[in-house]
Specification:
5-stranded antiparallel β-sheet, 4-stranded antiparallel β-sheet, 3 helices
Amino acid sequence: MTALATALLVTTSVPAVAAPMVTDATVLATTIITPTPPFGALTEAVGAQTVGTGIDFTFGNVEGIFDDGGGVYGFCGISAGGICTLEDDVDGAIVGLAKSIYAEAGFSSAGTLTLSVYDSGMTLLASALNGPPLGVYGRTTFSIVRPTSDIAYFRISGSDSYGVNQIVLDGVVGGAIPEPATWAMMIGGFALAGAALRRRKMAVSFA
């Protein structure tokens, strides 16, 4: 097998599915996004600042991040009046398509919140209610696993006061940011391809 063929094999065999992607409100609140007071006016919208972790919050409702107590933060939906009501929906577009989604949300009673997922045509695929087991922040959780990667949008809604602390996407294809190891493989493959082409040009030149 030639070096060029080997390089192409390396670059085309890179898996398209990314590792699980975590969007954590507490991490964001302590790094790049200014929190909004609970039941207060929006300080800073989340927007597209989470695209790198797989979610674009510019879709649908506006979201902020609020102090959920004890050093924990959560995403909250912002009302038409610009208030973090802790009752407005939290929704977003997935960067690519996910096979599964897991979320941890607020201190709401089990069964009072709904996680809904949609395909790229905004057709409802599945829904789940919050409940046990509790997540890493001690809040209720819910998850949806699909047979294939077809989740394009999600919405978390309910009538109880809540915040969404963490969202985890898995089986994401298309639009996912390659892992460092994947970048290394791709760069190595391109280097091999370039070397093979240079050798071929030299052989032609001196023939």
